[in-house]
TrEMBL record:
Record protein name field: N-acetyltransferase domain-containing protein
Organism: Lacticaseibacillus manihotivorans DSM 13343 = JCM 12514
PANTHER family (UniProt xref): AMINOALKYLPHOSPHONATE N-ACETYLTRANSFERASE-RELATED-RELATED
Superkingdom per UniProt: Bacteria
SUPFAM superfamilies per record: Acyl-CoA N-acyltransferases (Nat)
Gene Ontology MF annotations: acyltransferase activity, transferring groups other than amino-acyl groups
InterPro entries: Acyl_CoA_acyltransferase, Bact_Acetyltransf, GNAT_dom
Alphabetically ordered keywords of this record: Acyltransferase, Transferase
């Protein structure tokens, strides 16, 4: 049985960091430089730092999905709510869980008149999901330089219709 619930301080944060690691290795294997993915470890993520802005999906007691959202971290979008992250374990993809988590995450930022997110420009499946919930591409791009190779994110926004 899959359950979705807000995170608490006492979650199994190492298991949730592992969830991030595993989803990145599969979801981004053709989207990010291979050398970039190889240098990541579960310790790359510190999800407990944002626990108040986190909703988790579980299969029994195993974390299988996560969404995080809250106030904008970018001064250019100071009045926006931001969808920080959305990940579903590869074994649970294509079952509607991503959509359920996205809606739960949007509830976290429901009080903001506009919402935004960053998505890889070459991540068509994620872009399709966001478009179905009213997000649109602003055509603004952020190039993320790394020693292993650059990648580019697109900024998508939507108006919140209270």
């Amino acid at each position: 049985m899959i359950t979705i619930k807000p995170a608490t301080m006492t979650e199994d944060w190492p298991a949730i960091a592992q969830l991030y690691f595993e989803t990145w290795q599969v979801a981004y294997r053709h989207l990010l430089p291979e050398a970039y993915l190889k240098q990541l470890t579960p310790a790359t993520w510190q999800p407990q730092k944002r626990w108040q802005h986190t909703i988790l999906a579980f299969s029994n007691t195993t974390p299988i999905g996560i969404v995080t959202a809250g106030p904008s971290r970018d001064e250019h979008f100071a009045t926006f709510g931001e969808l920080y992250s959305l990940y579903v374990h590869p074994d649970y993809e294509h079952r509607g869980l991503g959509t359920r988590l996205l809606h739960a995450g949007l509830e976290l930022i429901d009080g903001y008149p506009q919402q935004y997110l960053k998505v890889l420009v070459n991540n068509a499946p994620a872009q399709q999901l966001y478009a179905r919930t009213g997000f649109s591409d602003t055509r603004q791009r952020l190039v993320i330089p790394t020693p292993q190779g650059d990648f580019t994110e697109a900024i998508w926004t939507r108006k919140n219709f209270f």
